[in-house]
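Loading example: each entry is read as two labelled lines plus one structure line.
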Amino acid sequence: MSHSTLPDCEPNFASTLPEQPGVLVVRKHHFLVRLSHWLNVPILLGLILSGISIYWASPIYQHKPDPNTGNFDVAADIGIWICAHVPGQHHYSSPPDWIYNHMSLGPGMLAPALRVHWLCAYSLMLNGMVYIAGLVMGGGWRSLLPRRTDLLDALRMFRYYLGFPFAKLARRKWPHPVFNTKYNALQRAAYFSVPVAGLLSIATGWAIHKPMQLHRLAAIFGGYTASRVCHFWLMWVYILFVVPHVILVFADGWDTLRSMIVGWSTRVKRSETIANEQ
Amino acid sequence: MKRRAIHHKEKDTPSTNVESEVKSVSVKKLRTFFRERPLPPIEVAPPVLRYQSRRDFLIFGAGALASLAGAGFLLPRDTLSRLGLRRSVDSPQKEWFLNKALRIDDDVAEALYSVNRRVPTYTKSQITPLKNNYNGTTPDPGYIPGWKLTLDGLASGLSVSLDIGNLLTRFSAHEQITRLVCVEGWSAIAWWAGLRFDDLLHAYPPMSQAKWARVESSVNLDASGNPDPYFMSIDLATARHPQTLLATHFNGQPLTVEHGAPLRLLVPVKLGLKNVKAITRITYVTEEPRDYWAERGYSRYDGI
C-alpha cells in the first residue's frame, strides 16, 4: 500500500503547508457504471411516459363499455375513481383522461409517443452495453452474483426493515445485520434482477415491435399478445424497484448517494484494511 | 496394438485420483474467479479527492441540465403545455432528430426483412374477430359495381385498367390465415384469400428502375364523410413476398365494404395501416412515394 503522506513521517520543513493526512477510500462504482446509472433516469422516464401513451391507443385490460360513459379501459376507470374521490380533483374536465394526463405524455398522442419510445429504447440498449462494459472493467459484476446464503440473508434484511419503525418507536436498539460483502442479499437480489428485467424488456419489446420477423422470439413469451402483457408488467418491476431504491439511498446516507456520482466511498472496512496491509 | 491399449488403460486407472484433484483445482479456480473481491482501500490526498469530486459533481449537474433541456426539446408540444411550458420549441431540428430515430428503426426493419422468411400461419380455430377499423367513415358500397384497378408506371409505358372479374379469372387464388397487427397494438388472426401481388408484378411488370409502389384508395372518407384519398408506400421487395396478397376474400366470403371490397392489400409483414382497403390505383415509382400516415408523424417503412 502506498501512502502519499504518512502520519509518522518526519515533517517536511521545506513545505509551508501544514501536513494533511490522506483519506482512506474505496473505489465503489466504475465511471461507466455511474454514467449508465444516471442515464437510466431520463431514459426510463421517457420509456414509461411514452409507453403509457402507447398503451392508451389499445389498452390490454378492457371491460364491456360502461353504459353511461362508454369507457372500456380499466386504466381510465382508475382516473374516474380518482376524480370522484380525491379532494381537489372533483372538477377535473375529463376524468377518463386523468391517468393519461398525469402519468404519460398524454392521450391521443400515439405518433409522437412511438417516436419518443424508439429513441429511448435504442438509447436504453446502448446504455445497457455501457453498463455491462463498466461492470466488466471495474469487476463490479462479481458483487451482483447470487449466493447460496442469499435466501436466509434476505430474510434477515426483511426482518430488519419490518422491525425498524417499531424499534425506533420503542427506542430499542435494532442493529443492522452485518455482511462482509459490498451489498446485502436484498440489494444483490434487486441489483441483479433489474438488469435481467431490462434484458427481458428489450426482448419483449423486440417481440412486439417485429412480431413477424422475430416471431420465434415472440413465441418464447407466448406469442404477440402475451409479449405485450409481459412488456407491460416489466414496467412495474422498474417502478416497484425505484421507489424503495430512492428511499433507502436517502435513508442510508450521503456517502452512498455521493458514491454513485464520484465513484468512491469513505466506508472502508477496518478488517479489509488490515488484510490488505499484511 | 490392442494389447498395448489395454495395458495403457490399466495403467491409467489409478491416476483417476490425480485427475479428480486436477478437476477440483480448476473448479476452485473457477470459484475464485466468480468470488466477490474486497474493495482495496486506497489513500488519497484530500485536495485530489476534492478536485475529483468537484469535477464529477459538475459533470453530473451538466448532465441533469442537459436531460431537462433535451426533454424540453424532444417532448410533444401538448405534453409540455400541460406542464405549463408554453414556449415550446417546435423547431424543424426537433422533427429532424425524431425522424432520424425513426429512420434508424426503419433501416433495422428493412435489414430484418427477407423474402424467404414466412410469417406464422394459423388454423381456423385460432381465428379472432377483426373489427372494421376504417379511418374515418366507412364508404358507401355504391362504388363497388363500377370499381376498377388502375396500374401505372409499367414497363410498357401504358396505363392498365382491370375489373374484379379480370383479376379473379386471370390469377390463381391463394389462401392464408395470418395475423394483422395494428400500430395501436391490437391484432387479429383472419382467414384471407386472393392473388399474390408478385403474380400481378409478373403479369404487368413495372418499369425497370421502379423500387416502390404507391397504393391508393380514392374511395376513402374522413370522419365527417368527405373524400379523403388514402395512399401509402410499399417497397417492391415487400410486394414480392409470397404472403403479400391482393385479397378478394375474407373468411371464405367475398370482401365486404367494411374490409375493403372488392380488393384490399394484405401485407402481413407490415403494420395494418399499410393494408390499404378498396385499392383503386397502384403506381410504380423510382423514389419513395408519399405516405398518408408518415405525413401524420408515423414511420414510413412499417416492417414488422
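The mean pLDDT of chain A is 88.
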